[in-house]
Amino acid sequence: MSEHLTIYPILVHLITAILLLFFWMNPKIQRYISIVGSAAGIVIGGLLFSRVWENGIQSIQLGNWEAPFGISMVADTLAVSLILLTNIVAFALSIYSTENMVSSRVKFGYYAIFHFLIMGLSGAFLTGDLFNLYVWFEVIIISSFVLLTIGGRKIQIEGAVKYFTLNMISSIIFLTGIAMVYGATGSLNMAELSRIIPEIENKGLMQTISLIFFIGFGVKSGVFPLYFWLPASYHTPPAAVSALFAGLLTKVGIYAMLRVFTLIFPLGETNQIILMIIAGLTMFFGGIGALVQKDMMRVFSYLIICHIGFMVGGLSLFTEVAIVGAIMYMFHDIIVKATLFMLGGVMFRIFGSTRLYNMGGMMDDYPKLSFLFAIPLFALVGIPPLSGFWPKISLFSASYTAGEIAMLVMFIFASLITLVIIAKIWNKSFSTSDPKRERKLSFKYFNDFSFAEKAAYVAPIILLVGVTLYYSFFAEHFQMVAERIGEELMNTEHYYNAVYGIKEVSEL
Amino acid sequence: MEILLAIMTGILYAAGIYLILRRSLVKLIIGIVILGNGVNLLIFLMGGLVKGNPPLILSEGKALEGLYADPVPQALILTAIVISFGLQSFAIVLIKRAYKVLKTDDIDTMNKTDDIT
What we know:
heterodimer; A: 508 residues; mainly alpha; 21 helices; 2 strands; 2% strand; globular; B: 117 residues; Helix Hairpins; 3 helices
């Protein structure tokens, strides 16, 4: 049984989702099942993480078909740490959704789809087969379409049309890339591909295919010319859904890039330059876009794009230090972006709107909450010792040692512009005095809530802020994990040996 | 035969992209469907075409013999068709809903979510 632990992160959410389908019309029971399922997810994620940490990369061949023929599931350190973080965010969101999602939405199957989405994410992180990765991507996007449209408000439907179209096109481009890889190599197993591709003579074709993959993943992660669906749709659903998307969905595109561009198509000089330019432009346009927005949720949506640039930039430098920086940034970003959208949901309840000019007086009315919200906001900027600061050290020093001064300038520019934006939000909504809003009649404000309802909103934020603080003060733990991931990604033989069951000679 | 299918794939891609660039929601969906079919044809083509030799082991034989058709792309296409069927049916419901709620079929007028104010 225990050798199957590798696929349990997928199974736990599948089982939870199926259980939830049996209680379709009973929102109350669904809430409890979802929380228990997510908690089980954290436990299994933690077990798998500790096993991979102690015994090295784990792999399992589905249906017992030997390595290049069947589908391999590979749990390396990158996959398991992302699964653990995903499950932590999912647990927080399960609690947050109890109040944030009204019963009518839950009755449309919100929780079941939520767990199907987490299952898709776990599968995408674990799979060792390109086509299987495509299938998990489809599981993710079909679930996200439903989550985005649940409730069917006018603006949601409009956002969903845009989101749907661009994600469909990106899947089609990704599938085109897979078809071409299969035509050129006759294999789709990532470990086998890592050995076949360097031996292929036709470098130009490989270059083209790698860029097709980049476009496919680029749409999903929201890099510069391909991001327009993101700010058009992420602010439309309820805060719980936005937080889930912001924390995890764009990161799965980055994960796929990290995997494909280290294992299958190691970045060449041309691709490095292309990725660098795109990363720089992503940071620039994301930052500028966030600066002009007047709605807090949209500001956060543009900040997602801006910070995707850090991760793509780290990958594009393609040294071990830079990749460690990119991975550390990804860990920090998953937690903080989810927290931001969750606190956005709370502020919507406090002010009755997320428009910046409707806000103000947060400090006077809710001093404790303001202090809590300050932590993720300042962590996002990277004020030391908060979590955004640590990955930036690696990224800055890597870009300096690589001699890419333009990249360094863009990193600093993006950090500064984030600081300006956060200062603006802080000024507008926290420190200015209350603008004497008129109260909407049929709207439940935050101070009308009972204690339990308030707790359901705030407790998950406290949980995630706790994780951020842990990251801030014990950054060396995350650094250790990220360094090991960087080592595994840059030396692909570990992955290959794990998939083919070759025993590695211990280096100790 | 290969060259014919290659040209066909190209035509499907071109037609799909052309339709996606039109302003009508319905044409958008038709474009995505055609593009999806183009990809499926491409996967089929990439497996190599073999005439009249399915990958079956005869009852007296032990292994596959001669030049046989590659079964993997066929399995991939089947999976891709099923997935795109699901997505397309969702898409059709979505555009019906979008037409009902937004009262327009013109993509150019759908810019409420991008307003800065």
